[in-house]
Amino acid sequence: MHHKGIRTRLKVDQSLMIAPLLDIMFLVLLFFMLNTNEGNIHSFDVDIPQAQQPENRYPMEQLVVIVRAEELGYMINDEFVAESIFIPSLKDKITSLGVTQILLLASENADYGRVMRLMDAMKQAGASGVSLGVENVE
Question: What are the transmembrane regions (predicted)?
Answer without folding.
Answer: 12-34
